[in-house]
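In these records, each integer encodes one residue's backbone shape. Here is one protein:

___
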Amino acid sequence: MKTTRRGFFKTAGISTAAGLIGGTAILTPSAFAQTRHAMKMGEFDRGIIQLSQNESGRGPGPRVLEAIREHTSKRVGRGYAPDYVPELQESIASHFNINSSNVLLASGSTWLLQGAVRAFCNTDKPLVTAGPTFSTSEGTARQTGVPVNLIPLNADAKLNLPEMVAVSKGAGLVYICNPNNPSGTVHGPDVIDKTVRAILKDSPNTHVHLDEAYIDYGDPAKIQTGLALTQEFKNVFITRSFSKAHALAGMRIGYAMGHPETLSAIRGAWGMGDVSMLGAIAALTSFEDREHIEWEREENNRVKAFTVGALNDLGYEVPESHTNHIFVDLRAPARGFREACMNQKVAVGRDFPPWENSHCRISLGSMEEMEVAVSVFRDVLG
């Protein structure tokens, strides 16, 4: 029998107020960090420090891991209609004060990005995107014969939103990644609001996709969700991921928020995959554990400050990042830096045209990982 969201937490033995799991005191964020440090993180992934895929070096919070263990039973054999998926959808809707029909779950946000391009673009309705930015939308467009209007980032490594607006008339979809991947830069709510209104004023049938995959890492004083725009405009929708701050990349869970008709069009254009029972439990627990997400943001900021500071000391500039990665200006092709780092078992990001001859993306791992990685960077760059 499925339970309500409240019943789920009771069944799992989780008390967010008391900080207990099954009657056992959980690790506080500081104790969790100390435990991670005690492990020394010396057993890196296959001997490689993985700083190329924007995954979490700290992993899910302790409540999430306990919830997965609590629910790993023979019940997973009854998973064609997975438990807790409706509860996850309800929790997201409740948190953002929207209806469940305004939320679409998927097996990772990739399906949502691919579905949006297929739903709203065609040979007569191009995609408008940036370069470099997260490339799934562009890749899907090119695979399906959809024209692409690609606008390079400006000199500050930010989306050139005025130029994107200028080429959006008649477009099927405008893709705005905020915070942007790979640059990590952001635009504030007033700028996003102005941009969306300008697009829809001149091209009311165009859809606007706000990708907020990294927003949990952003400085609230500099970036806020565009959710209100999805309630005002039928053609605006948001996607988010549980792969970043929630550290559930291996579980593959993403979601979109927007008008039911818009979400239905995305779902109808492309398969969304299935969110598994354990994936839903993990995502539901993590989504409710706001204390841990705040700790994750602060810890990421600490690691980022350490890494950026080391690179600055070596004479290299890094645009202000609001993500779990940085985009360092090497003043040289990324390829040589990447190969030299890999020779010392540190993997950094791939090329990001048209900035591949100057910038390299470095994902931020745990502090223990970055201490080792920075020593490699000093050796390679110094």
Notes: Residues 1-43 have pLDDT under 50 and may be disordered. The first helix runs from residue 5 to 12.
